[in-house]
Amino acid sequence: MSITVRFAPSPTGLLHVGNARTALLNWLFAKKLGGRFLLRIDDTDAARSTKAFEEAIYRDLGWLGLAHDGTDRQINRLVKYSTAFYTLQASGRVYPCFETEGELERQRSLLAARKLPPIYNRASLDPVNAEKWKAEGRKPHWRFKLSRSKVGWTDLVRGPVEIDTATMSDPVLVREDGAFLYTLPSVADDIDMAISHVVRGEDHVTNTAAQIEMFQALGASIPKFAHFPLLVGAGGEALSKRLGSLSLEQLREDGMEPLAVAAYLAKIGTSDPVEPRQTLGELAAEFDFTKIGRAPAHFVAEELEGLNAKTLHAMPYSAVANAVPQGEAFWDAIKPNLNKLRDIAEMARLVSGPVTPVIEDAALATAAAALLPPEPWSQETWGAWTKAVSAQTGAKGRGLFHPLRLALTGLEHGPELKKLLPMIGRDKALARLNGETA
Question: Which pTM value belongs to this model?
Fold first, then answer.
């Protein structure tokens, strides 16, 4: 079976971690099986869609490494949606409705008062009502007529699913102004693009029953479906109010590594441990729908930050060479102390200066300065030098190493000095031990 999946974001805002997870799971599934990942821009909402947000979608997916195999915009495909609409109309599966939004809201309120589900009563199918409302000059919106029977499928995440469409309102396909809503364009595109698998959040489960009936009404093959649980916050709260701070753009500005974000979103809510990965290919090879749990996946910013640090610690120099002109030895020395790649600037200052030393033990610093060996230095220099300083001063353990670190770097903690000292060099080391900024 040829695998083709799609990610269909609306350019009405920035991609957030929930969107990104949907795109990522689609991409991983397709790439594992040698399939295609299509990007479909859902821009039929002309009032809210913007070019800036569309450009941001491409930029964010590119940053995450999710290259697409084809793309299109729904605004370019309106003729196909009209063709699908007329096919449904010819078979009697769509019908005009004339109620105003106020009338529909009153109907929902009455049903709620009687503790009944808010299902549209199909009053517009009564010829008397329809003629009356037409005579008033009302313009119709159009609904898809559900079969009001049970629709079932085997979900790749949830297992067997059955939904009775009698518990649903007939979905609106076209508004009064002629604009298409989500359902029909989505189905028409999935048919036209030969989408084999629809991978999305479980908030679409109910929609799927209506869409399966629409696939059938259009005489098309039904794709397979996989509905995964949504992301929630650390305490189980909805992320909706925090999405602005959880956009991919914000994560990028905060210094998160795309591989760390991808690994985190791929692994939370699954049976796999959340651990660093070197490539998206590794994540694709490990992907399996059966690993996705049924409980919501908890997005915890602190966990992502921890994974970001671990990802950097595991990165080879080849992956960061452009960002670390100081060379491989410098990267090897500093990477265990990085939380974010931008921390490199502070690490580089320790080598190139200026560093204002902190002299905690003046006598020790003076003795250490006098015992500095001549260059060239290597990683063995630190051990030999500190052994000599200890022998002369009697200082050991923290009493030896902590004052030297403060004098050489001005910091309480940092990279291993046996690796850093040769890069600092004798002149700067001597000046700092003497209390001079260098």
Answer: 0.93
